[in-house]
Amino acid sequence: MLDLRIPTGWFFSILGVILLSLGIFAPGQASLTTLNVNLYGGLPMFVFGCVMLFLARARS
To answer: What is the reported pTM?
Structure first.
């Protein structure tokens, strides 16, 4: 049976990496605010995805 933490972890990790890279290499794309939304949104997504993958790996 497939553990839902694996696809959830991969989804959030990949999406977090995409947002982190956009936040690092193109910080001015979200022009409605002065904050780097891609960077601050991608970091928690990446961490959450890594935690899900770690929990799935620790269980098996």
So the answer is: 0.86
Exposure string of 16-45, with b = 16+ CB inside 10 Å and e = fewer, is beebbebbeeeeeebeeeeebbbbebbeeb
- Give the domain extent around 40: 5-59
Tens digit of each residue's pLDDT, the chain (60 residues): 678 999 999 999 999 999 999 999 988 776 778 888 899 999 999 999 999 999 999 876
Contact call for residues 39 and 19 (beta carbons, < 8 A): yes
Number of domains in the chain: 1
